Known about the structure:
Elements: H1 2-10, H2 18-27, H3 31-40
Helix pairs in contact: 2-3
Amino acid sequence: MVVALVDIIRNQRTNGPFIMWIIIIVLGNLIGPILYFIFGRRQS
């Protein structure tokens, strides 16, 4: 979870709203970070 939060703060370009991904990561302790790395990160 910490790695996902650091990544989203450093790289604020996401698929979907930035705040939504932070909420998903924090509230979905196990599945939230996994979902972020699969669907949320915007590939450069």
